[in-house]
Design goal:
Elements lengths: L4 E5 L6 E6 L2 E2 L6 E2 L4 E6 L5 E6 L4 E6 L7 E6 L4 E6 L5 E6 L4 E6 L4 E7 L10 E5 L3 E6 L6 E6 L12 E6 L8 E2 L6 E5 L6 H4 L2 E5 L7 E4 L1 H5 L7 E7 L5 E7 L7 E6 L3
Antiparallel strand pairs: 1-2, 3-4, 5-6, 6-7, 7-8, 9-10, 10-11, 11-12, 13-14, 14-15, 15-16, 17-18, 18-19, 19-20, 21-22, 22-23
């Protein structure tokens, strides 16, 4: 986050090659911001570009690294407080949360322009988000939220599901606010939602699991921290991640610095 800049490095040696300041004007009020932080940085699959979120200004930078001595940058005005995000399943569209603005920005990385600004609530925090096929609405991308229990599903198929594309098609009710990550896998029928920062220990120490083929049925709760058998401590469960085969889900259980933490591995097929 500090200093307010991004650095282009040699991919093999990590030698810094070029440092670029991100100080600039806010997208809404057009005021100068002296310390805008860099949040997500992802590599485009369409062009030799890095996509750089500048948090406080709300600007998304498409930085072309073909010739860094004559650097070309496309600046896309989105919404302030940009944070993390991820790709749709085609790797063309980058969906990223502007969390305190309660919006998700959609960037068409092929056409190098903003496709949509979608209203969501409250304080979306997707991590990379989760892609799957909703049985009613087709391909969707999901984000959970810090500010409430909502898991928001956004349509991502402008070709075959144009009426649902870049719109909120479904909102699921999770355990509560304080979520940081949602996760699924192409070989899984489940959507996992953590609630790491929820003030209720019973919620922060467990995860919600939805059946993708029956989303209206609600969620099951997995007591991940209880399974870790760590004894005392906050034991916050965070960031489900699948193995490559898609049949195991790994969870971190965060404890105090003087206490034991854990990794809990769950068989997704059960």
């Amino acid at each position: 986050y500090w200093p307010p800049q991004y650095t282009i490095m040699d991919g093999l040696t990590l030698e810094p090659l070029k440092v670029v300041s991100t100080r600039g004007m806010t997208v809404d009020t057009q005021e100068f911001h002296p310390e805008p932080r860099v949040a997500a940085i992802v590599a485009s699959h369409q062009h030799p570009e890095f996509i750089v979120n500048v948090k406080e200004t709300g600007q998304i930078l498409l930085v072309n690294y073909e010739d860094i001595n004559n650097l070309k940058t496309t600046t896309i005005g989105a919404a302030r407080f940009l944070h993390d995000g991820g790709w749709d399943v085609t790797k063309r569209y980058f969906l990223t949360a502007a969390n305190q603005s309660n919006k998700v920005a959609v960037v068409d990385s092929k056409e190098q322009k903003l496709t949509a600004l979608i209203d969501v609530d409250k304080i979306p925090h997707p991590g990379r988000g989760a892609n799957f096929v909703d049985p009613q609405y087709g391909p969707v991308w999901a984000t959970s939220a810090l500010g409430n229990e909502k898991i928001t599903l956004i349509g991502t198929d402008p070709e075959k599901h144009a009426d649902q594309a870049w719109k909120v098609v479904r909102v699921l009710k999770g355990q509560g606010g304080g979520s940081l990550f949602v996760k699924t896998h192409p070989k899984s029928n489940h959507l996992y939602v953590d609630t790491t920062l929820n003030p209720d220990p019973a919620i922060s120490q467990s995860v919600a699991v939805f059946d993708i083929n029956d989303l209206e049925a609600g969620y099951k709760v997995l007591p991940i921290a209880e399974w870790a058998k760590l004894g005392e401590g906050p034991k916050r469960v965070v960031q489900p991640e699948f193995n490559a085969g898609g049949h195991e889900v790994w969870f971190s259980v965060w404890n105090g610095k003087d206490q034991r933490s854990a990794l809990v591995v769950v068989d997704d097929r059960l």
